[in-house]
Each structure stands twice: as C-alpha cells, then as structure tokens.
Specification:
three-stranded antiparallel sheet; alpha+beta; 9 strands; flat; two-stranded antiparallel sheet; about 300 residues
Length: about 300
C-alpha cells in the first residue's frame, strides 16, 4: 500500500485527527513530524512532507489511520453482528455467501476470504473505497488476488496450502520467503568478502547478531532445511575468507580449525561461529484440515 510519504505534515495531522481527539497525543505526533532528520555531518534538516523512514512515528500513524479499515472489514464479526459466531459463519458459507478475516501489521495486511474470486475482488474494491478518504491507495504492484494453493508472501514469510509429502492430505505451510533468504545472503557476503580487512572476531560477532535475530524470527516456519543450507553457505564463506587472508592450503586450514576431538571450529577472541542449523524450529500448530478451493488451479482440481 502507498504510504504517507508524499503527504504534507498538515495532511498527515488531518488523518490522525479523524481518529484521535486527545490534544496531548496530537501535540506529540506534531512534534515528531517537525523534529526533522539528522544528516551525516550531524546537522538537523527540517522536513515538510512524510515521516522519517525507520522511525517509530510511521507505524504509529498507520495503526491509528488503519483502524478505520479494521473496523469496517470486521464490522459483521463484532459481537452481535450478523457473523459474530461460528454457527452463523457456517450457515452463511452453506448458503454460498463469503466470509473473511483481516490480518494486519502496520500498513501490511492480508484479507483471507472463504468465497469465490468475484467475492474477493468485490472486497478488494470495498477496501480501496475505505482507504481513499484517508489519502491512501492500494499499491497495484503489491496487491493481488490469489488462491492459497498458489501462496502469498506476508511479512517475509511465504504462506501456502499444499499437499503433505507422501500423503493425500493438504495443509497450510509457512515458509521463509525467498526474497528474505536472498537479502540475508547479501549481508553475509558483505561481511565475509575474501578481501575483508575486518578482524575475524568482529566478523563473527556481526554474523552472530545478524543470523541469530534472523533465525529467531523465522524459527516458527518450515525452516529447518533453509537454516541448514544457510549455515553451510556461511561456513564456506568464512573458510574461503580465511584461506585467502592467510594463504592457507587445505592442510593448514585443517590444522587451524580442527580440534583434538575432531570437531571443526571457527572462533576468535572467545567468539565462536554461530551455527544457524542449531536453532530449534518449533512450527505453529495448524488449526484445520483443509482449505476450501473456490477457484482451484489445474493442479488442485
């Protein structure tokens, strides 16, 4: 979804005032908007539009503004609404009427629909109509209508309904998105370049920080194989960096990295290489047996 980046500070405040009446909160938001950004030389540069990228204000404003969408989309599901109980939802589905749920994180959201493609596209237009008065619009490049069998990416995860290997049972699986794996590899390559002048301990510390945080974010996905492949990738990057740096042959490398017990260890200054494949994967429990297929692809017909 397109953000508030192009809006003036006055326009942003107008959006916030639609939802927030507390003057103290409004004054604080305005102060954040007027604070400016710190440039590389250390000077403060004022801004006239948008919010600083990476700051805490942007997700706050989005959560305030997007509560309008939450309330609109979930209006039928609130207590006392026409679809407030599982029985009512089941009855609605039995009559061929759609049901849905929205999952949102700041300005990223996905709407899961039980219904036809036409139902889904109509709901998309409804969402666009709700966002328009806020000065927001759905990003054409990021907004798609897909079946769960084709899968979709959300918050760097790839979520897909597929057949369990070796069975005829279909389940929803949460994988690590390929784009996230590529981004991590790029950062690892930058840290382990053969001509890197960083001391080994610093490299290991930064790799630990990077890989540990990444792994703990994705450890609830189907990630064991991904962790293992990335661990092997990083290990060999370090090995080739050390060989190039010290001009070791394989025999010299073995003598430096292999312990008396036969274990291979890359360490320096008390910091050992963080083994990504050692992170325990604990996948989320799946609640349900199958996903209805309103417009199945040929593979799922």
């Amino acid at each position: 979804m397109d953000s508030f980046d192009s809006l003036s500070h006055t326009a942003v405040m107008d959006r916030v005032r639609l939802r927030v009446k507390d003057k103290r909160v409004l004054a604080l938001v305005k102060a954040f908007l007027k604070a400016g950004i710190l440039t590389e030389p250390g000077a403060v540069q004022g801004t006239m539009t948008g919010t600083p990228q990476g700051g805490i204000l942007s997700p706050l404003i989005f959560n305030v503004a997007m509560s309008v969408l939450d309330e609109h989309v979930m209006e039928p599901w609130k207590p006392g609404g026409p679809m407030s109980t599982s029985g009512k939802r089941a009855y609605r589905r039995s009559k061929g009427a759609p049901t849905w749920r929205i999952v949102r994180y700041a300005d990223d959201f996905v709407v899961l629909v039980h219904g036809s493609r036409e139902d889904t596209e109509a709901l998309r237009e409804d969402v666009a109509a709700v966002l328009a008065p806020l000065g927001l619009r759905l990003s054409p490049s990021k907004t798609r209508v897909v079946h769960m069998g084709d899968g979709f990416e959300f918050l760097d995860f790839r979520i897909r309904w597929k057949r369990k290997r070796g069975t005829n049972k279909w389940y929803v699986y949460t994988f690590v998105a390929p784009s996230s794996v590529r981004a991590l590899k790029a950062k690892i390559r930058a840290l382990t370049h053969r001509t890197s002048q960083w001391e080994l301990r610093s490299v290991l510390v930064k790799l630990r920080q990077l890989m540990r945080g990444w792994a703990y974010y994705f450890r609830h996905a189907v990630a064991k194989w991904t962790f293992s492949k990335l661990d092997t990738f990083t290990w060999w990057r370090l090995v080739h960096m050390l060989r190039a740096r010290h001009r070791w042959n394989w025999g010299q490398l073995r003598r430096h990295l292999k312990t008396a017990s036969g274990r291979w260890v890359i360490a320096a200054g008390g910091v050992e290489y963080f083994r990504l494949q050692g992170v325990t994967v604990s996948r989320y429990s799946y609640r349900g047996a199958k996903i209805p297929s309103p417009w199945p692809s040929p593979n799922h017909a």
